[in-house]
Amino acid sequence: MVGEPPCGPALVDDLLSRERSRILGATWAIIRTRDDAALSAVWARLAEIEDAVDLVDLGGMLALNGRHVTHAVDRVRMHWLGECLCRAYLDHEMYDPAKEAAYGHVAIVEEIPVVVHGRPWRPRRICACAACGQRYDVTEDEGHYVWWRWRRAKDVEAEASASVPTPRKVVTNPRSPARARRRRSSPSS
Ligand SMILES: [Zn+2]
Question: What is the pTM of this model?
């Protein structure tokens, strides 16, 4: 279900329309695409777009809509800076790995079962970016809506190995004062 890439000029028109629904439609189209022509077209008019969008009440629970628009703008900048767009996964919680895989942006290379309180929970997925190969460890959770947390797989591994408890050091120094005291006070054999 890989759709056609969005049309850049249409995205720009929507973003400048001052109509909430059109702005949000364009926002999600930007969040879903890695298309160079579309993102470049938005970049070329970005200052104007940001001014226009600022004037619109975007609404949404918890002011989420405004945050999605901000993320779409960040994504356009990221693309212009030449960063791989997988970097955007770290900043936003609505990237569904299954959809990203369907768009061809990532490959799901592994599913790691998760058990919470003895019951199977949504598995973690290891995703590899199709463009740069960066691997992400993605957890899925649900609050008011289903969301995903993307972390670089190597960061998760480093964290996991750092949290392995190190065995407590056993003090073996026979000259330690405490031990000496104990010796003195114990009945001599
Ligand atoms: Zn990448």
Answer: 0.81
